[in-house]
Amino acid sequence: MTRNVSNQRLWSRTRDDLVRAVERLGFPAELGEIIAKHLGSPKAMERMISYLDYVKPKSEELIVDEMLAIRSEIDAWREKKASEEANARYNEMLYYELAEDEDE
Fold this sequence. Notes:
With 104 residues, the protein is mostly helical. It has one domain. It is 88% helix and 0% strand. The chain has four helices and no strands. α2 packs parallel to α4. It starts with a helix and ends with a helix.
């Protein structure tokens, strides 16, 4: 339970940092809150904060485009990991099947 509370605090603190970064650029806090919700993780939000601080985009469209790019990279990484896990299980299954065939 303590870990869950700690994770929630980290998420909330990072979300607040993201909202402030969006506001510093002159955009509404609601935009930052929506972006935080769509990014989902503190690490992704930190990437977005870095982008905002470094690039200082002048339009909401640029901010949303970067959020979508970060989200796309996260989704691609998750798909890759799922594929690697499925491949490892498949190879394990083949290995043990072959080993059983050799024992007969």
